[in-house]
Amino acid sequence: MPWRRWWCGLFCLLAAAGAVADSGAAGPELELVLWPEQARLEGHFRVELQYLDAASPVRFRLDPGIAVDAVELDGQALAYTRSDDGWLELTQSLAAVDGTLVIRYGARLSDAPRGARGGGYLGAEGGFLPPGADWYPRRPAAEPHPFRVDLDVMDGHLGVASGSRVTEDHAEASYRATFEHPGGRALAVATGPWEPVTQAAGEVEIRTLFPAALEAGFGELYRNQAAAYIERFSDELGAYPFSTFTIAASPQPVGLAFSGFTLLGTQVIPLPFIPYTSLGHEVLHSWWGTSVYVDPADGNWSEGLTTFLADYQFKREAGEARAERGQWLRDYAALPATEDRPHGTFRGGNAGAARIAGYHRGAMLWLMLEDWIGREALLAGTRELYAQWRFREADWDALIATFDREADADLRPFFDQWIGRSGAPLLELTQVQRESAEAGWQLRAQLHQRSPGEPWKLRVPLGLKTEDGQETHWVELEQEGREVVIETDARPLAVAVDPDWRLFRHLAAEESPDILRRAALDPQTRLIALGDASAEEVASWLGRLPDPAERDQGTRILLGDHEATRRWLAERGFPGHPATVKPGLDVPPGPRAWMVPGAAVVVISGADAAARREVVGALRHRSHYSYLLPGQDDAPTTGLWPVPGVWQELNDDE
Predict the structure, then answer these.
(1) Interhelix angle for 396-407 vs 375-389, to 10°?
(2) Does residue 182 have a cis bond before it (omega within 30 degrees)?
């Protein structure tokens, strides 16, 4: 029977609420048989009635496109109804009745990925049954709870499901494994024509499920990296919550985290940075998001915390933390005001405005908290959060209470501000005066903040360069402006507001070069296509076909060959070449993309459509730069336009 299309992105696994059942009965069990070559699924769901609240109507979420073959209590048929919005409800009361409830069902699925990334399918290239897609009977209000899945996969494919793999058996054309989850919700399953390789990492089994070619080239690297991440995060936060961890390949270009496994696209796995960055992020979701669950009604806090404790810490250890913070703030500077969102409204999504609100704002929140309470208190808070909320749903109130206790401070105003408000402050230092003092030197200045609404409550780092080196002085700012007095032993030479980008804020013009991402972030970006250029060439980057520009206003993409774009720019008084903006810049022949400073124009030029598509493909991971030019060994040359910076030199008369 055809199964209607359903889709679920990376964060649907964070979409159910409830408490673990405490009846003492065994949790639900699911026997699932999959035939990839036929795109066919059969399920046998079983639960003891004493595990259910049978005095109230018993309802299950189940996709209405799935055929139900039987609903039985100890072998006797039960009457039920199906609704168009995905509910199966028993029509009789089961109060004071014991026994085993069984639901048998089946479906034919799409045989290949369709639509949005993360959609469900089952076929020869692989299969994916997403969390939240109602491919098995579930009671969201009763989750999380213990769950067991007996998974059978035919046609020579293997499979993985949420939880720990506790048994498995390989036959010539079939695979059977059992997965157990002590507190599961919205389970996921993936299948594929994989080569399984397993290695031990302490008490945890690490497995890769890759096609043979990927296994030969990358399997050992991914297993070793995953083992290192599990050891690291277990030491920092508490023991890894499952006995197995699997990295499985998907025909879709995804990076998805589930309880006990992660799903990475076959196009993603060979990328050289993934094992050292994104893999660690997905492993850490075993603590945040798929172990300590997010309360879906209260916003998704897990992506910001995961980004801070994984991606950002990797950058910190590589000496690249300041550059990472600068990239986050430049992305925010490129975001149209209409797309600005509070962190607390973030539910999911890892691109565009959603990524800035959920990942970047979130990570900066934890950085600012660390600067305030110290790293030890912050890590103590994360350990306590994990210990107290594992396999439970934690909302922002739970997080705030936990960190309040560890910091011995009232952190509510801090969290309320950075969770609940959009926008950010713009800071400025004026009337700077340097004076000699009896015991050294004194610097006086006026510190101002500008933003719509009430002033932000800030701890502002002021950088001071002196004859003895650089200092940082933290200043409380809760009003629009105040006088600042800094005492120092050595003669001050220059001063700057937050020169290391430790506050989430609007960048000043002198520290914020225009970047290519502006065109991707602005939903109103329009296209100026010259010659044979067409909107289809940039659709993969923007995620849509841009409309033609009708006037010289707003964000625009100028698309064409080098000469045509140069003439168009010259006619309007704009620089026609990247080297005009940055003298001495080497610009080899070939396709390129660059931002015209101050003009809201992104130029993408190349000899023909194929050349321009080549540079557009590179923009996916490199649009946080001002320009992208041909380089060597297939690696483009990137960079930012020069800007003056925020340091104010102190003259002798100051």
Answers:
(1) 130
(2) no
Q: Is the pLDDT of residue 14 over 90?
A: no
Sheet of 59-61: strands edge to edge? 59-61, 87-90, 80-82
What's the Rg (C-alpha) of the chain?
Answer: 28
The single-letter DSSP state of residue 622 is: H
Interval 508-540: pLDDT, tens: 999 999 999 999 999 999 999 999 999 999 999
Q: Give dist(CA 80, CA 91) in Å, integer.
A: 5
Of 238, 229, 233, which is closest to residue 383 (Cα–Cα)? 238
Q: How far is CA 36 from the centre of its chain?
A: 30
- Residue 625 contacts residue 641 (beta carbons within 8 Å): no
pLDDT digits (tens, 9 = 90+) for 39-80: 999 999 999 988 887 667 899 999 999 999 999 999 999 999
- Say how many Å lie between the first and final Cα of the chain, rounded: 81
Do residues 292 and 392 make contact, with C-beta atoms less than 8 angstroms apart? Answer: yes
Query: Checking DSSP bridges between strand 76-77 and strand 121-123, what pairing results, if any?
Result: unpaired
Contact between 233 and 287 (Cβ < 8 Å): yes
Angstrom distance (rounded) from CA 267 to CA 534: 26
Local structure of residue 211 (DSSP, 8 states): -
Alpha carbon distance 590, 442 (integer Å): 54
Tell me the domains of the chain and their CATH numbers.
Answer: 293-420 (1.10.390.10), 426-511 (2.60.40.1840), 517-639 (3.30.379)
Provide CB contacts within 8 A for 43, sequence distance 6+.
30, 31, 32, 33, 103, 104, 105, 106, 135, 136
- Cα-flanking dihedrals φ and ψ of residue 253, to 5°? -80, 70
Please tell me the distance from the alpha carbon of residue 515 to that of residue 524, in angstroms, as a whole number.
16
- CA 553 to CA 650: how far, in whole Å? 39
Beta bridge partners of 105: 43, 68
| CA–CA distance, 511 with 430 (Å, rounded to integer) | 17
The arithmetic mean of pLDDT across residues 573-594, rounded, is 96
Please give the single-letter amino acid code of residue 649: E
pLDDT tens-digit series, residues 324-359: 999 999 999 999 999 999 999 999 988 899 999 999
The 3 state secondary structure assigned to 63-83 is: CCCCEEEEEEECCEECCEEEC
Q: Which is it for strands 126-129 and 244-250: parallel, antiparallel or unpaired?
A: unpaired
